[in-house]
Amino acid sequence: MTKADLIDEVSRLAELTRKDSEVIVETIFDSVVRSLRAGDKIEIRGFGSFRTRQRKPRVGRNPKTGERVEVPAKKIPFFKPSKELKDLVNEGIPAGSAQAAPPTAVPPAATPAT
Is the dihedral of CA 12, 15, 19, 25 positive or negative? Predict the structure, then answer.
């Protein structure tokens, strides 16, 4: 879903004009960004929480030239989904199947001889 799709969905469900829906969606996103810039944590019950994490400075490499590059310390946004959101996303999926690796065939040499 894109931002335009989200605006259309809000417009349809709330029976608002597309322009009013766009203002609402933009206001929410701007509020989240402003709070993260200020160092605040945003918690939306039943959905998840947004916060920033601090990354340390490090030495990286330019993939094209291989040259060493100093990467400065920076803050990155981080989203942690709530248990309710995780449960809703996984609704109808049997437990363990989302993380399970596909079964592998047993090599013929490993089967017992009869």
Answer: negative
User: 66: left (phi > 0), else alpha (psi -120 to 50), else beta?
Assistant: left
The two tokens of residue 54 are 């601090």
Per-residue model confidence (pLDDT) at position 114: 47
DSSP-H helix ranges across the chain: 3-14, 18-37, 83-89
Residue that the structure tokens 């601090």 belong to: 54
pLDDT of 105 above 70: no
Report which DSSP code applies to 66.
Answer: -
**Rounded Cα distance, 44 and 28, in Å:** 12
42-90 residue pLDDT tens: 999 999 999 999 999 999 999 999 999 999 999 999 999 999 999 999 9
Identify the CA nearest to 74 among candidates 51, 54, 60: 54
Residue 11 near residue 17, CB atoms below 8 Å = yes
Task: Report d(CA 22, CA 14) in Å as an integer.
Answer: 12
